[in-house]
Every structure is written in C-alpha cells, then in structure tokens.
Design goal:
Blueprint lengths: L8 E5 L3 H13 L3 E5 L2 H10 L4 E5 L7 H8 L10 E5 L4 H9 L4 E4 L4 H18 L12 H10 L5 E9 L1 H8 L1 H22 L5 E4 L5 E6 H15 L9 H4 L12 E8 L8 H11 L1
Parallel strand pairs: 1-2, 1-3, 3-4, 4-5
Antiparallel strand pairs: 6-8, 6-9, 7-8
Helix pairs in contact: 2-3, 7-8, 8-9
Length: 287
C-alpha cells in the first residue's frame, strides 16, 4: 500500500551513485516522483527551478557540503520551507544541532533502515502538508489562505491594504544566523499585531504576501493610519534586532548593509482593481 501524497516530488542529493539509484528506485515504487543530483551546487540550481516537496540531503558532497546547500535553499522564498532530511555518516550531537538550526526536519545516519527512511519521509510530508497554509516561522497565514482573503476583500467597495517588510534580512542572516533572523520575523509579527489592535479592528487580517512581506487587509479609511502605526512600531525597534554588542557600531555600516523598515498602503480609493491577478500587479509595485 502506498502511504504518501500521490505524486509528491522528492529530490535526492547523494554523491554515492549506487545508493542514490537504490533510493530513487525504491521511492518510485512507493509512488513518489524522484529527481537526483550528486553535487551540491547542481542540486541548489535544480531545486530553485522546480521546487520539490521534500529533499533528502547528504552532508558530505564533493563540492559544497549539505549544510551549505540547506543554507542557500533557506535564502529563497520559494525554497525556504521545503522539508529537508539530512542523510549522513556523522553522528556527533553538534552536527545534528547544526542541521536542525538550519531548519532540517529530520536527521538519519548511515547505515540506515530503508523502511525507517520511508516512514520519516512520509511523516515529514504529512507535517508539511498540514503547515503549508501557515508560515513555519511566524505562524501567519500565507498562500491559499491569503488568496482567499484577498478575493473576499475585492468584493467590498472600501477595501484597504498595508504592506510591511524588513529589508536586508539576507545579509543579516549571513552575519547572525537563521535563529536570529527568525527572531526578527517573530518580533515583527507581534508588533504588527499590536499595531492592528491600536489602529485597526478585529476584522483586519494579517498574513504573508507572495513576496514574503507582511500584508494587512483592512478598510480604505484605516489603511493609511494603520500603515503609519506600523511604521511607528517597527522603526525604533530595528536597533534591538541586533545583538547588544553590535548596536553601538550599527550606524557605522552603510545603509545598504543595515536592516530597514518598508511600509506602504493603498486602497480602493486609489486603485480600481477587478480581480486578484490585477491586485497582484499593484502589490508588486508597493513591495
């Protein structure tokens, strides 16, 4: 019996050709679509083009290691939430922690039981399917849930939208790590929720736009005031996203290397939008 999402795509990154072929053949029998790569850079490029549902990733690769593959995938919106299972001969606790910090969902050491790997893949796909409607870091709705809200919004004559984002997160992540960057996203979520409580109402919706920015669905009469409140909440907090020892030197950095807040708003009073596709074009101009 096949115990998986029918047709789920799995990408195997393994430089041992015999092992890679064995895994691919076995997983195809289980009903998965499988793609392969033997080098890290090749894997990153292929995964960015056609994002799979799950990656089985060896750590020891002939060019860049599995940690770097994972790190690069986490930098792109399209690939940052793909479940990754590390497959490796390493057994040290520090190695496992390094993988988990980068966002790996599981870690299995060689030699392994193929049935165990199958079950871990199945469980990771199930968890992923349940969480795809909410951002794994902030817990906010994204994807289909946001699309539904936008469709409902356009049915009202007095809709308004606020977009809020933090620029410079990639460089911040490179310097301070994924954990610190995730903490920034969670802090921004909390501050935006407080801004909505202060200047919006209980019917306002907060989620993530396709660009990764935060999006607040509100009404035309509140959109500008709410955007201003978001800016007041976020702008003074930027310095506190940095470790205490870094704050004194923060303004010695060029602006292009510092975190920056971007908040904008627009409404039905400014744009005649007939459908969600047209709305996405407007959103792209403000992102």
């Amino acid at each position: 019996m096949v115990e998986n999402r029918k047709g789920a795509k799995i990408f195997i990154v393994e430089d041992d050709v015999d092992l890679s072929e064995m895994l691919s053949a076995y997983l195809r029998v289980q009903g998965y679509n499988v793609a392969q790569a033997t080098r890290g850079e090749e894997a990153v490029q292929q995964i960015k083009k056609v994002a799979p549902d799950l990656v089985v990733l060896d750590i020891r690769l002939p060019d860049i290691n599995g940690y770097e593959v994972c790190r690069q995938l986490r930098q792109y919106r399209r690939t940052q939430s793909i479940p990754i299972i590390f497959l490796t001969e390493k057994r040290e606790r520090e190695d496992k922690l390094a993988g988990l910090e980068l966002g790996a969902v599981d870690y299995i050491t060689k030699p392994f039981d193929i049935q165990e790997l199958r079950l871990r893949i199945r469980n990771a796909l199930r968890r992923s399917q349940l969480s795809t409607m909410h951002n794994p870091v902030t817990g906010l709705p994204e994807g289909v849930l946001v699309l539904e809200q936008l469709e409902k919004m356009l049915q009202r004559p007095n809709w308004g939208v606020v977009l809020a984002g933090i620029r410079g997160l990639n460089k911040f992540r490179d310097r301070f790590g994924f954990v610190a960057t995730d903490d920034v996203s969670r802090a921004v979520t909390l501050m935006l929720a407080n801004a909505v409580q202060e200047s919006g109402n209980q019917n306002d919706f907060i989620g993530h736009a396709d660009s990764g920015d935060f999006i607040i669905v509100t009404t035309a009469d509140r959109s500008q005031r709410l955007a201003e409140r978001c800016l007041v909440r976020l702008q003074p907090s930027i310095q506190y996203f940095y470790p205490a020892m870094e704050r004194a030197q923060l303004y010695n950095l060029p602006e292009s290397e510092r975190l920056a807040v971007q908040v904008s708003s627009f409404s039905a009073d400014e744009h005649q939008v007939e459908d969600v596709e047209a709305l996405h074009h407007v959103l792209a101009r403000y992102s």
